[in-house]
């Protein structure tokens, strides 16, 4: 069995369901130690059992916007492989939620939670992950290493945007506004951290069937019509496989921005 991500540690927020869970399974399958976060303990316990338990996975329950939770996931990632000098080197900023409708038609009582989760939570984790990766690289440099080259160790921050963060969505423009912000945040972070050797990757999926549609409040008959018209839509595993491919690239290769849609999705 080949484990191309052995010796790597992946922190994944929103790993209790959907795309995040599929990423945890895929990166675990490729040999990474997985630190999984989400708010539902029971689903984390189930994921942990699937990934083989304590030797391969650690779970941190809690809100991904909470500073203590962010510190905890990164601390657990740091100690995961038994070397406190080794920070998690794959951080997947995945937790997020949708919201059906526009500024006029969406449920306004959910705006703040969505903005907080999709933008503030994402920015906080990018910040902490970036700071820690940079500090580790500086320590390596002081210890005599540190010239970036083909033998360097890959470090990845992978951010889940959306096609509606690149193309205006007619049916979820409030959600789309948060993902336009995420798009900008990821690209700005790539420009800042890429020259230092950290890959910040933006993944922009189209329709993926998951808990997302229910949380966002799409009517089941609306989504059934979408699936009838443009399906089959993506499965979480399709996105996870793409991320597995990206993080396996050598450190000097960066697949930095991937828009992945169901083949028959015309728009957005
Ligand atoms: N599905 C799509 O069509 C689609 C398309 C483009 C982009 N995306 C993006 O892909 C990402 C994952 O979406 P998905 O389809 O997998 O949705 P999902 O099935 O609803 O899963 C969302 C995950 O995020 C977690 N989560 C939500 N709020 C959280 C919080 N405050 N703290 C910690 N965890 C939280 C949920 O777990 P708990 O409830 O246990 O906390 C769950 O594990 C999101 O950023 C989404 O915007 C989805």
Describe the structure.
The chain has a single domain (9-100, 118-140, 153-234, 245-257), classed as NAD(P)-binding Rossmann-like Domain (Rossmann fold), CATH 3.40.50.720. The chain starts with 8 loop residues before the first strand and ends in an 8-residue tail after the last strand. It has 8 helices and 7 strands. The radius of gyration is 18 Å and the shape is globular. Helix 1 (18-29) packs across helix 8, helix 3 (67-79) packs parallel to helix 4 (111-142) and helix 4 runs parallel beside helix 5. The chain has helices spanning 18-29, 41-51, 67-79, 111-142, 173-193, 212-216, 220-230, 236-247; strands at residues 9-12, 33-38, 57-61, 90-93, 156-160, 199-205, 257-260. NADP nicotinamide-adenine-dinucleotide phosphate (NAP) binds next to helix 1, strand 2 and helix 6.
In short:
The protein is α/β, with parallel strands linked by helices. 44% of the residues lie in helices and 13% in strands.
Number of domains: 1
Largest sheet: 7 strands, parallel
Class based on secondary structure composition and strand pairing: alpha/beta
The backbone outline, from C-alpha atoms, is globular
Number of strand segments: 7
Measured as a percent range, the helix fraction is 40-55%
pLDDT averaged over residues:
96
Bound molecules: NADP nicotinamide-adenine-dinucleotide phosphate
Low-confidence stretches: none
Query: What is Rg?
Result: 18 Å
Strand numbers in spatial order across the main sheet: 3-2-1-4-5-6-7
Instruction: Please tell me the CATH architecture by its name.
Output: 3-Layer(aba) Sandwich
Strand content: 5-15%
CATH C-level: Alpha Beta
Quote the CATH topology: Rossmann fold
- Give the CATH H-level superfamily: NAD(P)-binding Rossmann-like Domain
């Amino acid at each position: 069995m080949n484990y191309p991500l052995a010796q790597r540690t992946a922190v994944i927020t929103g790993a209790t369901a959907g795309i995040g869970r599929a990423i945890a399974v895929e990166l675990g399958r490729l040999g990474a130690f997985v630190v999984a976060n989400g708010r539902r303990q029971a689903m984390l316990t189930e994921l942990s059992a699937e990934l083989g338990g304590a030797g391969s996975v650690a779970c941190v329950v809690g809100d991904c916007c909470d500073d203590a939770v962010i510190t905890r996931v990164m601390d657990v990632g740091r100690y995961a492989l038994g070397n406190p000098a080794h920070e998690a080197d794959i951080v997947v900023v995945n937790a997020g939620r949708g919201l059906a409708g526009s500024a006029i038609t969406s449920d306004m009582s959910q705006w703040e939670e969505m903005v907080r989760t999709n933008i503030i939570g994402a920015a906080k984790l990018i910040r902490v992950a970036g700071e820690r990766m940079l500090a580790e690289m500086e320590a390596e440099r002081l210890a005599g290493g540190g010239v970036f080259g083909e033998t360097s160790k890959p470090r990845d921050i992978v951010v889940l945007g959306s096609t509606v963060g690149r193309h205006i969505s007619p049916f979820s423009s409030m959600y789309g506004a948060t993902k336009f912000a995420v798009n900008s945040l990821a690209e700005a972070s790539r420009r800042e951290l890429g020259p230092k050797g950290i890959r910040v990757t933006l993944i922009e999926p189209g329709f993926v069937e998951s808990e997302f549609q229910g949380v966002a409040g799409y009517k089941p008959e609306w989504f059934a019509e979408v699936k009838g018209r443009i399906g089959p839509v993506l499965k979480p595993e399709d996105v996870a496989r793409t991320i597995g491919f990206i993080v396996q690239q050598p450190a000097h290769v960066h697949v930095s921005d991937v828009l992945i849609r169901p083949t028959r999705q015309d728009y957005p």
